[in-house]
Specification:
Elements: H1 17-21, E1 25-30, H2 43-54, H3 57-68, H4 80-88, H5 105-119, E2 127-130, E3 135-142, E4 148-154, E5 158-161, E6 167-174, H6 182-199, E7 207-213, E8 216-223, H7 226-233, E9 244-253, H8 257-270
Parallel strand pairs: 1-9, 6-7
Antiparallel strand pairs: 2-5, 3-4, 5-6, 7-8, 8-9
Helix pairs in contact: 2-8, 3-8, 4-5
Protein name: Fungal-type protein kinase domain-containing protein
Organism: Aspergillus versicolor CBS 583.65
């Protein structure tokens, strides 16, 4: 089955297993310690980001206050710990559940606030994290009469160039930690990459996703061989199938200051690529 022939394309949030298999995508989980900047040609950017964060009083104060368990009084990061209380809030059994609705909104908001605060530690950031959702549309085939076989995928935010508005990284959030739903979440994330690359095939060369599930953060890097891009964009098929590889690193725990300190330079470096 190919993407052109498959006729039951759901949106990315409801992607089926059969649909996912058509993506020709491999998901490769890696521990957070396995992330090596040199593998992604970003050593220079990570080194520069580390220096900027070390010199940021706001960021260092944020780390100290995370360790001490109380929110920072001032600075770029001051409202983030308060958002974390919403992410971690438990349902009070004594009151109606519908009045205590718990979804990904708090996770989404806290992540974008953290990402932008980290970005603002740079002297003159060239990109910004935007909360506005972008809906990517991947059209695989147009049938007689104009009907289309296509898939729509919406981000939970994205990193965009301030000048060209090019999407440089995408955001995906979930209210709860990965568990039995890991396969479902992974298929949805793969669908987001497929739609993004199909809709905007020219750039960027290296594509990132930053995702947060409850208080756990992941970074996914997409490796897209030329043969796979031909398969997706030009519908070319080779006798030997090619696959996109999604390297998913993490999790980093966002209530652990030491882990935040380690992942922040990577997140800032992504904005410099």
């Amino acid at each position: 089955m190919t993407l052109r022939r498959f006729d039951k394309h759901n949106s990315a949030s409801k992607v089926s297993k059969t649909q996912y298999l058509c993506f020709q995508t491999l998901i490769i989980p890696r521990k957070r310690e396995s992330f090596k900047p040199a593998q992604w040609d970003m050593t220079e950017q990570v080194d520069a980001a580390t220096d900027e964060l070390d010199e940021s009083d706001d960021f260092q104060s944020f780390l100290t206050d995370i360790r001490n368990g109380h929110p920072p009084a001032t600075g770029e990061f001051r409202t983030i710990p308060d958002m974390y209380t919403h992410v971690l809030r438990q349902v009070d059994a004594g009151y109606p559940g519908r009045l205590q609705r718990h979804d990904e909104t708090a996770v989404n908001t806290s992540l974008l606030m953290l990402l932008q605060a980290i970005t603002n530690t740079a002297l003159a950031p060239l990109a910004e994290w935007r909360p506005t959702k972008i809906h990517f549309k991947a059209t695989f085939m147009t049938l007689a009469g104009g009907a289309k076989r296509e898939m729509v995928a919406a981000t939970d935010g994205q990193l965009q160039s301030k000048t060209t508005h090019e999407v440089k990284a995408i955001v995906e959030c979930k209210a709860h930690e990965r568990g039995d739903d890991d396969t479902t979440i992974a298929m949805q994330e793969a669908a987001l990459f497929v739609a993004w690359i199909k809709d905007f095939p020219q750039s960027p060369e290296t594509r990132f996703m930053v995702s947060q599930d409850a208080m756990q953060l992941y970074i996914t890097v997409a490796v897209t061989p030329i043969a796979w891009r031909d398969f997706l964009i030009r519908s070319r098929t080779e006798r030997k199938r090619s696959f996109m590889q999604l390297y998913r690193f993490g999790p980093w725990d966002l209530d652990d200051a030491d882990q935040i300190k380690k992942v922040a330079p990577i997140l800032l470096a992504i904005t410099k690529l």
